Amino acid sequence: xxxxxxxxxxxxxxxxxxxxxxxxxxxxxxxxxxxxxxxxxxxxxxxxxxxxxxxxxxxxxxxxxxxxxxxxxxxxxxxxxxxxxxxxxxxxxxxxxxxxxxxxxxxxxxxxxxxxxxxxxxxxxxxxxxxxxxxxxxxxxxxxxxxxxxxxxxxxxxxxxxxxxxxxxxxxxxxxxxxxxxxxxxxxxxxxxxxxxxxxxxxxxxxxxxxxxxxxxxxxxxxxxxxxxxxxxxxxxxxxxxxxxxxxxxxxxxxxxxxxxxxxxxxxxxxxxxxxxxxxxxxxxxxxxxxxxxxxxxxxxxxxxxxxxxxxxxxxxxxxxxxxxxxxxxxxxxxxxxxxxxxxxxxxxxxxxxxxxxxxxxxxxxxxxxxxxxxxxxxxxxxxxxxxxxxxxxxxxxxxxxxxxxxxxxxxxxxxxxxxxxxxxxxxxxxxxxxxxxxxxxxxxxxxxxxxxxxxxxxxxxxxxxxxxxxxxxxxxxxxxxxxxxxxxxxxxxxxxxxxxxxxxxxxxxxxxxxxxxxxxxxxxxxxxxxxxxxxxxxxxxxxxxxxxxxxxxxxxxxxxxxxxxxxxxxxxxxxxxxxxxxxxxxxxxxxxxxxxxxxxxxxxxxxxxxxxxxxxxxxxxxxxxxxxxxxxxxxxxxxxxxxxxxxxxxxxxxxxxxxxxxxxxxxxxxxxxxxx
Length: 677
Description:
By secondary structure, the chain is α/β, with parallel strands linked by helices.
């Protein structure tokens, strides 16, 4: 039965043991946020406060032999790595599994969202194994490429892909070759350092003449820029690697050498058929082929994100074409909700040198100014001598570019005219503009997202706070490139990591809430605790609600972060606003006066100390603030029995609480806030 206590006026209150107090009425420490996991530890590496570097653009790092040490991985995360790229072209599954596990463990320790991007090798064309020291190629000499399983020697070298000879037909040149006045199809080896021209081909061999010679080493890449290959977009190795990616819960999967939307559909079908619970991992299409540039519109629509893979793209097209293709793709992706990564050779010299060239610094800065969601390091972090320095250098360059851009372009929204001014309608497919919905009215979610960004700019908001279950709200906001950070609070660990790729989005972990009010209030509280906003800041909060539960983005509200006047331990699970009724020590005579004034449930009794006389007032109040600390005190038990919110062991600005003042008490957090209209 439990013991009973007599309250003032003779009313009996049953004193429940602490362990039997209903969960909704238990004491909550002001140091914890109910319903949320801790997400802002006091560490220098945590996503913390305004003094820390908050890059809008994200940094992708390729993980390899130079970066597998846990200490190096930790330094990469501290330096600014947001996404870890697992390159399936190199290493075995055990190697990659160890890296994924280490990255996730270190990221969790640092409370940092780090996404895992598994990059499939795709139908990468390569030569086979060469004789020791490589095979010398001399300009003017003939070279036979064969599908036979041999060791490469002068005059004859193996190729790994069996479909290449049948895809090459002598004398058949596409428009690009004819326009260039080329008599024969070209084959480029070793990233274009070696060049061959096709003389003729059979089902198993290709006879070529060496145009640019050199030493051909084992398994170097091979590009056929003028040949439309008939090879499938996914190899058997890719299918095995997809299983590996799903088994280790990769956040993104990248598909190499995409040519049409059908390639993405084929991979998505595989992913969906093997994904746990039918939750398909999002797909990034790597743009490396001329056909992909021609079909860019359908590829963007079919993909979840794009990567401008400038290495093979520059070989397959031409180096001078890459900058404009890069700008076009970035602009078109910004017009959708699809993130875009600019990749390859961004700080290439830092593989060997501690500092970048000036041209590389300009390249990184221009990728940021173009509006890339992310910029990527490849060999710099995978095999370079200075992996951590490369990330720090990239972050420093990006920070300076963003500083300038914030001043000159508060929002960056590429227009149709800007894109077509560079390319016209024939340069990149259909030319339908940066938004596939450009001929239609925007959806409610799009309209609310744009209004949110505009409002944040107009009211001088410190941040946009976006509670989101699936990430859709944050993704739509990122599309409009706001000048303030987007704080995305999500209950999903998967979404938490996936959002690490999106421009300007800073994810925080929360838990699923039952009502829209809880969702919005707790999102603001999490952002405050994480240090993204401070007391007194104006914020714009946006989310979605359908029938009283979270749904598609359809609401926006402007909120000022109220100043915390006091804090303590909360009793109950309620938040309320009301007028202060102040009872100071030694003012027992006021209790009768207050009673005569007819205290209501909209009044909050504020008293450092409570005795038998003042306790009479608790039964008329809507809330209570006191310095009493005992969880089984009469005040605490009365609050539990009456179901009113109370703050016990309160400390803070007692003198600021005066009669008639409107305040807010939140028993869930133990905080007392100033009232803010």
